[in-house]
User: What shape does this take?
Amino acid sequence: MIALWIQDKFLGIDWHAWKVVGWIGNVAFFSRFFIQWYASEKRKQVVVPQAFWWLSLLGSVCLLMYALFYKKDSVFIFAYAFTWIPYIRNLVLQRRSEKRCPSCTEIHSVRAKFCSHCGVSLTEPLRTE
Ligand SMILES: [Zn+2]
Assistant: This one.
């Protein structure tokens, strides 16, 4: 068996609560690139999905907590002290600029007149017959 556990350390890391918080931050930051890449490839244009900003926010808050309460390193703290501000602002701006298709729940720009997924009008109330 591959030696994942060596001397009470998993992957050579001495795990404790703050290591878990720090690694959650790292995984969130790392995974957001794949989310954004997948969304862009799916639409064949540059797309920044809401999940990208949520993962950015989660990653920066976890790493800020790790830096503040575990590492207590001024360089590390400053690196994440203000990054959450544009992430929250982008989430607010994105929420304001989108509307959801009442039929298929696909998200579109507020300027969209028809759903590109199911063709339903986005300017008239949904008719059920
Ligand atoms: Zn639709």
